[in-house]
Design goal:
The chain is of the alpha+beta class. The chain has 2 helices and 2 strands, in the order ββαα.
Length: 60
């Protein structure tokens, strides 16, 4: 938690134990070529939602 900069939520209420807030992890940025061609380290991740549907339709 400390390495990501997390902190207590509403510490002024004095509750113990406290809930912690963790800021979002930094997202990797893709180059323009990677965005256009789809070449990236995330190619092994499953497709979700509309992309999964479109992949099924186009694969026919």
């Amino acid at each position: 938690m400390a390495e990501r900069g997390g902190y207590d939520l509403m510490p002024e209420l004095g509750y113990e134990p406290t809930n912690k807030y963790l800021p979002p992890r930094p997202r990797p940025t893709l180059t323009l070529d990677e965005r256009v061609t789809g070449d990236s380290a995330n190619d092994d991740l499953p497709l979700h939602g509309l992309l999964k549907w479109a992949d099924r339709i186009l694969a026919r």
